[in-house]
What we know:
A 5-stranded mixed beta sheet has the order 2-19-18-17-16, with no helix packed on it. Strands 3-28-27-26 form a 4-stranded antiparallel beta sheet. Strands 4-5-6-7 form a 4-stranded antiparallel beta sheet, with no helix packed on it. The protein has a single domain (5-16, 29-382), classed as TolB, C-terminal domain (Neuraminidase, 6 Propeller). It has helices at residues 41-44, 336-343, 346-350, 356-368; strands at residues 5-9, 28-29, 45-52, 62-68, 71-76, 79-84, 89-93, 108-111, 118-122, 126-130, 136-141, 148-153, 158-162, 171-177, 182-187, 203-206, 209-212, 219-223, 229-235, 258-264, 268-274, 278-284, 289-294, 297-298, 301-302, 320-324, 327-334, 376-382. By secondary structure, it is mostly beta strands. The radius of gyration is 21 Å and the shape is globular. It is built from 4 helices and 28 strands. Helix 2 packs across helix 4. A hairpin with a 3-residue loop joins strand 9 and strand 10.
Amino acid sequence: MHIKSLFLIVSGALLLNSCKPSGLDYFTFDPRTLKENEIALSDIADGVTYLPLPNNFPVGKASKFNFIDQSVYFLSGDGIIAFDREENQLRRIGSKGRGPGEYLYSRNFTVDEKTGTVYVLDQGDIVKTYSKTGEFLKSIPLQKFGISTSIDFFESALFVTYAFQFGGSLYSWVIFDTSGNVIKKREIGIPAFSGIYGNSRATYKYGSKIYYWNNYIDTVFSVLPDLSVDPSFFIRPGEHRIPRTRDTPLNPNEKYMTFSSIFETKRYIVIQYYFMKTILLLYDKFDKESFLINLEYEKNTYINGIENDLDAGPEFLPYQYTSENGREYMVGVIDPINIKTIVSSDKFKKSVPKYPEKKKEFEKLANSLKETDNPVLVLVRLKK
């Protein structure tokens, strides 16, 4: 009988040897040497699709998306929401609250692409499991393994990363079956230390691998389905890195570099990080060229990104990656009020984008929206 397993990967598990293997050409990321170099959407993409989320209930600010067939699952201020694109409707996965089967604070989530089962990382290091229709199934406690930071479903397995900087993680990784029984475990392989600064989402998937990163280490690793580990790219050591000590300032952004997100496409490594200012980096893996954009923050949102010269729409800030029907996409989100503001601006009216007919479609979209409508998903189709 085939047994699905839940693989719980503690952050220290992948701290193997971060030295660069001889004969291999790896990208080494160093924020101190990178220079601003802007890029436009037409340089990397050939199309933009806008998906307004239905308004049958408010969803708040959306982040972290999972595209599965004709559904989009995403984490919002209202919890885990699914957007059924064929039926053009929203549905909730479980509900927020303190009652049985509810999640109080959904820190992260992931979806089994085969069954549609949704795993929600709740406060207290408990994974709440829900069916495709949002029915609560069971809870999986993770407390005895430390403080979890993120989860991702991968090859019939659930990868849960842990924060080793708080000194509570005992294992590099633990393998559970779906009933919560331990199948295999591996002790942590790094010297213990106690820090005070947390960690952002620490995994992403691309191709057949899952990738792991942490603000305290100098290597981004790829993990294969057989649990073997390879380095993907490196982060230059130096005084810009967060030290492994409790003396780190509560706001390390004042002095140190921190990551907000990392993901990859076939051609690019995309990194959003803070070092003196918030920066979006696209690294071209083929041409070995870096493109930097300084991000501006106003009213609890970023107001710029990659220049949209395809349809003169909003500058694009990518959140993550997905693929559909053999094509690659970067995914973003924008509020309707910002779309309407763009269309009413003189810059938009005077713009001459690469696809003028798409500019008219975008203007029509803006006119169909109300400022208070739910967010709009932005799918940028990458060039082949």
